Amino acid sequence: MTDKRNEKILLTAAALNVVAILISHLLWMRTRLPGIPALYPYLTLAALVCTSLWARFRFHRLAQDEERDRAALQPESTRGALFASTDDPEIDPISYIHARRQFEKWFIPLLAPISALLVGFWGYRLYAVGAQPFDEPTQRLFAAAVLIGQAFALFLFGRYFLGLSRAPADRWLRGPGNLLLGAALASALTGAAAIVAELGYPVADRWVRQGLAVYLWVLATEYVINTIGFLYRPKRQDAQVVTYESRITALLTDPQSWTSNLAQTLDYQFGFQVSETGFYRFMRRALLPLVLVQILLLYALSCIVVLGPEEAALLERLGNPLTPDGEPRILSSGVHFKWPWPFDTVRRHPARRILTAHIGYEKDPDEPIPPMILWTQPHFPHEDQFIVANRELMAATDEADAAVPVNFMTVNVPIEYRITNLYDYIYNHGNPDELLRLAAHRLVTRELASRDFIEVLGIERLAAGRRLFSELQREAEVLGLGVEILFVGLHGAHPPIPVADAFEDVVGALEERETAILEANAYQNRVLPLAGAEGDEVLWQARSARAQRVERAAAEADRFATRLAIHQDLPRIYTSRLYLETLNRALGSIDKYVIATSPDLEVIILNWEEQLRPDLFDFTPGRMEDRFL
């Protein structure tokens, strides 16, 4: 009864796969969904294995019936017969027993290499044709509904086969059960890809198609390994040939198979039935759901993106970073939600951080820079040397033995920049930071080659830095790096360390010459203005004396003319007044008294009393002495 039941379900499963192939082909003819042709090898392989096992079970049942019939027809005892019977079923060409042995000896082992050729060829064909353009699929949702329904039917048969294969007598059903579940998984993935493509991501169809093609190669490789193992494995009389089984597919479709192997391993290692304990049975029931929940949670975490305050990201949806309007999907700092991987991926970069590139040197981030470094000491672990012009030797280039008019020097050029166009920064070049550094190195080399060593050390350093800044920004725009240059500096310019001492002597002499020149200029600036000021002072004093004498002579002349006119008009009054004025100037501050009496009468009054100050009782204006005159 068991063999007949197995024959029926295997034949039904084979018919179901054939019907699924026909339905898939008709569906592909109608919708042109790219993933449908990838289902053909899975369904064909499942139908082939189910049909082969149907034949195996049928031969096994007929051989058992034939053995019972032979046992019933055989005489009670033939040991004493003169001629023994020669009806050996092993050599009888029309015996079911012989046919079963030949079938299991030749066809069942060949089932694995045949399957390897089938799936390998079809996988190559799918992968090769996948690069060619397809017609635009239609009715994706209808195709998804049919494929998911087909996957459900195959899933039911596959789980039923796996349930039957738990019995030792039906061990052979595990292979077709796993293949049916694999075909169901392929159909479900193709239907899901059709739904995703209908939502606006048509690349999902191609991804599923190429993924199923790659898995066919994996199956082909496993079948080849199974065939080689069968050829070199020691043969046992009761061994069951199952080279058509795929253990990789079993890991995906029947996780309980590897837990059973784990239980057997534990029993062997500990020496007792660990798998029969209550704790193991509990863990066996709870571990798989727990692991699945953890995997789902971890997978769900891929829907959350957290960007720092200095970060920005570009969201790629099914590999496309642009929206339907052609704008890039830029995410700013903060928390964002997206489709899980691999539907949505995020490429984050420090777009709001000032980035630094070092030209001409390599800086150790862990080592601080000292505040002062001499030319004779290395500034950094590694420094490049650049060629600069030597204008003093350029005049001697006409001579045959003249030295090359160039020098070497080391320059540390830090460059600060930030990302302004994240799409150009990510997609225009594979390594934009390195490309910017190489472009800056080229510009620095060209700029220094056109300048003298002393110029770079002195007055031309700022001009060279400004020129490098503008040229590097223009170069970044031409290359489409998507960055903005913020700062370009020429720092740490010094000669090569082996000749630094000689350069220090030269620079010291130049500094002494400049010092002498500046001191002479200072003395000149100090003496010349002082001499000029003294000369101007003498000149203006002479002019002042001349003007004073001229004006005084003119005033005396005018005064004489005025007095002459008064004398001519009033000679007596003028003479008397002039006499009194002369007398007043001559006597100065001496008190003078005018006696109005005759000089013949002289009266002397002696007053011996103490006299009060007359001004105490003088309430009239004017001087006191004027009243006594």
Explain what this protein looks like in three dimensions.
The radius of gyration is 59 Å and the shape is rod-shaped. Helix 12 (432-449) packs antiparallel against helix 14 (461-479) and helix 15 packs across helix 16 (571-587). The protein folds into four domains: 2-71 and 92-253, no CATH class; 304-349; 355-495, Tetrahydropterin Synthase, Chain A (2-Layer Sandwich), CATH 3.30.479.30; 589-628, no CATH class. Residues 77-86 and 622-629 have low confidence and may be disordered. The chain is an alpha+beta fold and 629 residues long. The strands form four sheets. Strands 6, 9, 10, 11 and 12 form a five-stranded antiparallel beta sheet that branches. A three-stranded antiparallel beta sheet has the order 3-2-5. A two-stranded antiparallel ribbon has the order 1-4. It is built from 17 helices and twelve strands.
Brief summary of the model shown:
This protein has helices at residues 2-31, 39-73, 96-130, 140-164, 174-198, 203-232, 247-253, 255-270, 278-301, 391-394, 422-427, 432-449, 453-457, 461-479, 500-569, 571-587, 624-628, and strands spanning 304-307, 312-317, 330-331, 334-337, 344-349, 355-359, 361-362, 382-383, 386-389, 406-419, 483-488, 491-494. By secondary structure, the chain is an alpha+beta fold.
